[in-house]
Recover the amino acids of this structure.
């Protein structure tokens, strides 16, 4: 039987209360949201927080809404809620693409958007999707509220810009005209983490890629981000040659490692293939044709 | 120890628990409701599925203290007043189980699916149970059992 080490349990009633509890308990405390990443780690004793601060009571952080030209997702939104959201699907279909293949329906009932991002597992799908969408993370602490671009959010594997006494409260995805997006993932079996996955968002102006975001999961991309591939496509027409060139750059610059999910050359090949697929579908969707 | 209050299958329950006690062990050992099974212990197999506030969750990955103030429903609550849930009947009619280890979780997920989607396609059924592992049936008969329940909804009770 796998049992976590003993800990003290506190339940936060509000964001200020959660922040006060974090300040009181110091760096030995951890918040728990859905618990579907943290509790397995505690059962394996890979994490042993002295105090667990339960934020499941912060139902005010569970929402999906459009505000000030942004799609705003509360940190406590469950995966299942994001998957079911017509508003999210309308603006960023890649979120639905990604959610359909994150874990399984039962895990998605419990795991949260905020927990996903803060866990910062190198294979986390939403991190790649949010990187592609050039999202902003809203972080609250004793000193107030700050907004961090997603490209600066992930400091490395399992490490984020959220300090031990802070909370991630919201993710914001800027809504811009001409957008189309898609997420492509290959996994060994249903519900598994990615062997490789790619999210793409294009913003078209006429026939030109005015801007593009490409996010990679599970293949060692710094900040889940394929910067070189984006730069190659920006300002060009998204024709077959331009997409192939971007896909080749994404594959070249990815840094996958060999593990039980596959060898390096296979994963690198997947990055190229999936980048092409995601870009083609994103462009088709931007043009109003479902890809 | 922390005192928790919750309802389990509609009955109020109060207990003092260690914060680290997982909900699956609380239900099985403290309450003696051994219908909820405990398997992989890694959130993968789904044999520990029960409902928390009307939603199926993997109870090996939920703390008992997280259920404080909430409503838990286990497989024992499928049969009511001596009447089986159509899902239970379906598993009998279509041989939806062999060893029975995965069955409680499968049936609770099936009931949840049918409450939201009374006439699911085979693909929808397979998606709904995709987070649960059966080592015996090859899933064919589980899908048939759930289809049977969809076709015979007369005894369905939707929990409040
Ligand atoms: C069987 C299984 C399969 C999975 N497969 C996939 C997959 O294919 N793809 C994928 O992307 N994910 C997958 N996951 C992970 C799943 O998405 C997790 O549930 C999710 O990543 C974490 O969310 P949570 O709410 O459970 O976080 P928790 O476990 O509660 O927390 C995770 C970490 O984030 C911190 N945290 C949580 N919320 C906040 C906040 N608001 N502010 C600051 N810190 C916070 C916690 O302190 C902890 O360190 C899988 C999980 C399981 C169990
Ligand atoms: S015991 Fe909970 S998922 Fe296997
Ligand atoms: S009947 Fe044996 S595991 Fe499903």
């Amino acid at each position: 039987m796998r049992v976590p080490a003993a800990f003290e349990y506190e339940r936060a009633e509000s964001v200020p209360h959660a922040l006060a509890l974090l300040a009181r308990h110091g760096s030995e405390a951890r918040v728990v949201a859905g618990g579907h990443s943290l509790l397995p780690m505690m059962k394996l004793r890979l994490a042993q927080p002295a105090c667990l601060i339960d934020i499941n009571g912060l139902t005010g952080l569970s929402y999906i809404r459009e505000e000030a030209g942004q799609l705003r997702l509360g940190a406590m939104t469950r995966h299942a809620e994001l998957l079911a959201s017509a508003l999210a699907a309308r603006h960023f279909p890649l979120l639905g693409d990604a959610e359909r293949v994150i874990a399984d329906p039962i895990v998605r009932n419990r795991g949260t958007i905020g927990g996903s991002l803060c866990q910062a597992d190198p294979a986390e799908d939403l991190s790649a999707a949010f990187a592609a969408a050039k999202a902003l993370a809203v972080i609250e602490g004793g000193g107030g509220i700050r907004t961090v671009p997603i490209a600066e959010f992930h400091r490395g594997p399992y490490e984020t810009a959220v300090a031990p006494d802070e909370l991630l409260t919201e993710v914001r995805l800027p809504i811009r005209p001409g957008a189309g997006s898609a997420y492509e993932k290959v996994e060994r079996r249903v519900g598994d983490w990615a062997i490789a996955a790619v999210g793409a968002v294009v913003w078209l102006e006429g026939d030109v890629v005015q801007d593009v975001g490409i996010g990679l999961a599970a293949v060692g991309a710094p900040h889940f981000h394929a910067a070189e591939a984006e730069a190659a496509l920006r300002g060009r027409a998204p024709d077959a040659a331009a997409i192939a060139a971007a896909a080749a750059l994404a594959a070249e610059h990815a840094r996958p490692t060999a593990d039980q999910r596959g060898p390096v050359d296979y994963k690198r090949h997947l990055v190229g293939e999936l980048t092409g697929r995601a870009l083609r579908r994103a462009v088709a969707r931007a043009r109003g044709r479902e890809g | 120890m922390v005192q928790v209050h919750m309802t389990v299958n509609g009955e109020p329950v109060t207990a003092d628990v260690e914060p680290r006690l997982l909900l699956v062990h609380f239900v099985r050992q403290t309450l003696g409701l051994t219908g909820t099974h405990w398997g992989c212990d890694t959130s993968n197999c789904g044999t520990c599925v029960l409902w928390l506030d009307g939603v199926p969750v993997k109870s090996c990955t939920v703390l008992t203290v997280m259920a404080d103030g909430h409503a838990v429903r286990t497989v024992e609550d499928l049969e009511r007043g001596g009447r089986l849930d159509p899902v239970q009947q379906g598993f009998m009619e279509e041989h939806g189980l062999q060893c029975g280890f995965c069955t409680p979780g499968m049936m609770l997920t099936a009931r949840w699916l049918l409450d939201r989607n009374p006439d699911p396609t085979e693909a929808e059924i397979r998606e709904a149970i995709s987070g649960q592992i059966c080592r015996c049936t090859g899933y064919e008969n589980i899908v048939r059992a759930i289809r049977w329940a969809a076709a015979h909804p007369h005894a369905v009770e939707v929990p409040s």
Summary: Strands of chain B lie at 2-8, 11-17, 49-52, 55-58, 71-73.
